[in-house]
Specification:
Elements (H helix, E strand, L loop, with lengths): L1 E8 L8 H16 L3 E8 L12 E9 L2 H18 L9 E6 L3
Antiparallel strand pairs: 1-3, 1-4, 2-3
Length: about 100
């Protein structure tokens, strides 16, 4: 199983519209990815590892695929509308991590 994590850094002046992300962006991603997408989840950062420390990421989105090839094929086909939608919910520059789930 492949997990694609999109991490949105919680930097000074960051804007993130969680309602838009949940109600519009992620459903669009789900619809575009179709059967290649096996699951998804969203996390909202609350705090860092120490009391009073802000979360390093304001939000994290995770997409699950059977294989790296399945992700790459689906994303290559639909990357333009997905990436074009980012300014509608955030001014953060996301970091993308592709991982193989081991457990």
């Amino acid at each position: 199983m492949i997990k694609v994590s999109v991490l949105y850094p919680n930097t000074s002046g960051v804007r993130f519209d969680m309602a838009y992300y949940l109600d519009r962006h992620m459903p669009m991603v789900r619809d575009l990815m179709g059967g290649a997408l096996k699951g998804m989840n969203v996390e909202q950062g609350l705090a860092g590892g120490q009391p009073g420390v802000p979360a390093p990421y304001i939000a994290l989105g995770h997409l699950f695929f059977e294989s790296l090839d399945a992700f790459q094929a689906a994303f290559a086909q639909h990357s333009a509308p997905i990436l074009a939608d980012i300014p509608n919910y955030t001014n953060s520059q996301p970091t993308i991590q592709v991982s193989e789930v081991k457990l």
